[in-house]
Amino acid sequence: MTGLMWHARTVEADRASVVAGAPVAEVETAADRTVDADTADTARKSAKSTALARGKVPAVNQELARARWTNPTGGAQPDLSRYRNLSIDVSLARQRVYIKSNGETIYSMIVSTGMNDTTPHGSFTIGVRGDHFYNPEERMGADYWVRITGPYLFHSVPTNENAGQYLPDEGDKLGRPASHGCVRLSIADAKWFYDQIPSGTPVTIA
């Protein structure tokens, strides 16, 4: 009996030294690799969280954010010379501008209107336009401006004093109230609007 018991213990010990056909040393090595991989993954996640907490947005997210205020925001931009009875509706609640022909929307744009409801409400008509302005009091300018009424304009996201030198922090605000009353557009939308919207086109802001 003693010999049989010793043999049984030896067999059990041998079984314990093999896992799925791998020697104990190999199993431990595989386990170590798994732990190392988990540790590295945890470190990467921790580094990413730290970067985000410090305001360092990953480059891919920065590119996506920039694309939002540089590109057309409503898809393919129509050739407005092919349409009649144009009008413009500005939705303050939705932060959208709708270009319409005979009352039907043909293009919409994501915009930023005035903070604290400073964009004027009412009915207006498109006036004069220009390629760039700079306001030293606000230390910001913009490209492709089109007058709504008085000092209130449609224009690109803000620039510094130089045309084409856009301010990313301001561009990232597109889609929520951010201006002092003007209606900000993405760069591509502002250029298209500046080039194509006829003077005298009616504008409704509500």
Automatic annotation (TrEMBL):
In the record, what terms sit under GO molecular function? peptidoglycan L,D-transpeptidase activity; transferase activity
Q: Does the keyword Cell wall biogenesis/degradation apply?
A: yes
> What keywords does the record list, in alphabetical order?
Cell shape, Cell wall biogenesis/degradation, Peptidoglycan synthesis, Transferase
Pfam families noted in UniProt: YkuD
Q: Where is the L,D-TPase catalytic domain?
A: 86-206
- State the InterPro entries in the record: LD-transpeptidase, LD_TPept_cat_dom, Transpep_catalytic_dom
Q: Does this entry carry the keyword Cell wall biogenesis/degradation?
A: yes
Q: Which GO terms describe its cellular component?
A: extracellular region
Q: In which pathway does it act?
A: Cell wall biogenesis; peptidoglycan biosynthesis
Per its UniProt entry, which superkingdom is the organism in? Bacteria
Might you name a Gene Ontology BP term for this protein?
Answer: peptidoglycan-protein cross-linking
| UniProt-listed PANTHER family | L,D-TRANSPEPTIDASE, L,D-TRANSPEPTIDASE YCIB-RELATED
The entry's protein name is: Murein L,D-transpeptidase
- Can you name the source organism? Bifidobacterium callitrichos
Q: What is the lineage of its organism?
A: Bacteria, Bacillati, Actinomycetota, Actinomycetes, Bifidobacteriales
